[in-house]
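Give me the fold.
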Amino acid sequence: MKIRRLSPRDDLTAFLAAHQTDMKKYEQSVQEIAAAVKTQGNQAVFEFTLRFDGVAINADNFMASEQEIEEAYDLVDDDYIFALRKAIDNIDFFHGKQLRNSWMEPDEKGNILGQVYRPLERVGIYVPGGTAAYPSSVLMNAIPAQVAGVEEIAMVSPPDRDGKMNPYTLVAAAELGISEIYKMGGAQAVFALAWGTQTIKKVDLITGPGNIYVTLAKKMVYGDVNIDMLAGPSEILIIADSTARPDYLAADMMSQAEHDVLARSILVTDDKKLLDKVEEEINKQIAGLSRREIIEKSLADYGAFILVEDINQACQVSNLVAPEHLELMVDKPFEIISRIHNAGAIFMGSYTPEPVGDYLAGPNHILPTGGTARFYSPVTVDTFMKASSIICYSREGLQDDADDIIKLAEVEGLTAHANSLRVRKEN
């Protein structure tokens, strides 16, 4: 299989824009779902679940029961439980380091300024499901919320054709103590969380990736609730020098390509011979992979080898792409990290493949995609918190600052603002 070869002189912007999905053709369908859920609540969710997932859900089996959770434990093995609990510990530790402290600071005039951080009261987490299992998404959504102190977490995930939720997903939720679990997915699930139904209480925030319908629904409800981000297809960019192993590079490119035919995998190097070796390795390794067809289409349509003059130029290309995942497969990765300005997560060295971050290392794997790492961050504890500013002026402090505040207010033509200071100053 041949992968396209580019240079920095080519129109990389056009190449990067090629995978952007035209959302307009999906908008009408999502708007129809929104209208139905807003007016009919549960019944609309049940009808769309039957239409899109082929499953008859009703008020009696809408929520995952304790019995279903117990059955799920019987269906998973002990090795999975061990790995899951190890991941939980690592993710909890990492996010625990992010927790902010409220603060207040007095000055010499007796004024007090500060900031108080509080968790959101109720959040909804979306976990993709149906034919696949994504227990890692349960952990990455719920653990930072729990570290932040969120008291109510409602989880939604689409059921399979038998009306069951994936046992690995259910066990992951149970291990975190999540009990409010609804069998629904797609846009209808987002609208149900945002606006509430006869069964579901509305939330303050919705997090978690999904398909184009989920993304559009999150975009529509933003403002009624907060959202984490608008996620697009997964992507990886690898910067490699002559010391990088071709078999590692090939494996890591395909690890992202298997997500989706729209996933993007880019290798940037200053070693021309390395590109030929990586291509050989891809053709060798792909034969044994279960999602070969997806990988082949993804790499053919959205994969690329980019040959640069040196590693400094490779960093410039990376900053232009602003990848979700960035691997620095170079001899001394810490020497070039200062040149990296835009990336969701950075994986350093030959022994840190991207899947380490997906599952076990601890940092969150819900990352900005589609170049939004230029201005957006991964999901963190901050995602599930809000801040209030504290301002307490003393009499002396107000007297000292009153004239300046009055002046600024009058410049803006807000005489009532100025008056609220003047009446205090005069009395």
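The first strand starts at residue 5 and ends at 6.
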